Amino acid sequence: MDGETQKNDAFIMSRGMKFPRHPEIMQGKIRRMLRRGVYERKESEAALRVVRAGDVVVELGGGIGYMSTLVATKRKIESVHVFEANANLIPYMKQVHEVNGVTNAHVTNAILGPRKGKVDFYIREPMLGSSMEVLEGEVDPPSVKVDVLNAKTTFKDIGASVLICDIEGAEVDLIPSIDLTGLRAAIIETHPQWIGPEGIQKVFRAFMDAGLTYYHRGSEGKVVAFRNRW
Q1: Number of domains comprising the chain
Q2: pTM recorded for the entire structure
């Protein structure tokens, strides 16, 4: 095996992006979806329709760094700012950015909310199953405290124009509590199985009150896109 082949074998390729192999993160299902180019497919297609050159993107829930790498490599954005509650994912995410030549991504181990503070974040295996919610049937799951940063101040300081959000049901409380009026567009994965129709209505109403309307070309299933009227 030559050196170039060995080098390529160190990565899983997806949509032209490199993802380093990792014994805990690159498990069967994720590995297969990456190789087939269907990992985060709906969110990816929405982002490619919505994100424009010069945008400042805020991503809530960065995961393995897929979406932040996608928007940074496929669109000439100004920057992408990722807020990820799971500290265990951040070294891998930064590695993904590095191997893909992304230099305008900023990663913070925190979540955004209406005010500063701390919240419990529940740690699970596999790593991507961690969340801020206690799942049905769980008893005293292991948790850590995660910083909450003021969303309004953060959005303003960053100059956010696009929001990408996948926070496993926490959108029902977060989205209505923050100032979305400065955004040009947003992409959110909703979780109706957890937040119900009333929760979905709350999320839609928050975006509409901020002057953003449903964008059908960027929406599919639980992934919903919004953009301003002008």
Answers
A1: 1
A2: 0.88
CATH number of the domain encompassing residue 47: 3.40.50.150
Domain residues for 82?
Answer: 37-109+153-228
List, as one string, the DSSP characters of the chain. --HHHHHHHTEEEETTEEEE--TTTS-HHHHHHHHHT-TTHHHHHHHHHH--TT-EEEEE--TTSHHHHHHHHHS--SEEEEE-S-GGGHHHHHHHHHHTT--SEEEES-EEESS-EEEEEE--SSGGG-BSSPPTT--S--EEEEEEEEHHHHHHHHT--EEEE--TTTHHHHHHHS--TT-SEEEEE--HHHHHHHHHHHHHHHHHHTTEEE-GGG-BTTEEEEEE--
pLDDT, tens digit, for every residue of 75-114? 999 999 999 999 989 999 999 999 999 999 999 999 898 8
Residue that wins the pLDDT comparison between 76 and 28: 76
- 129 inside domain: no
pLDDT at 147: 93
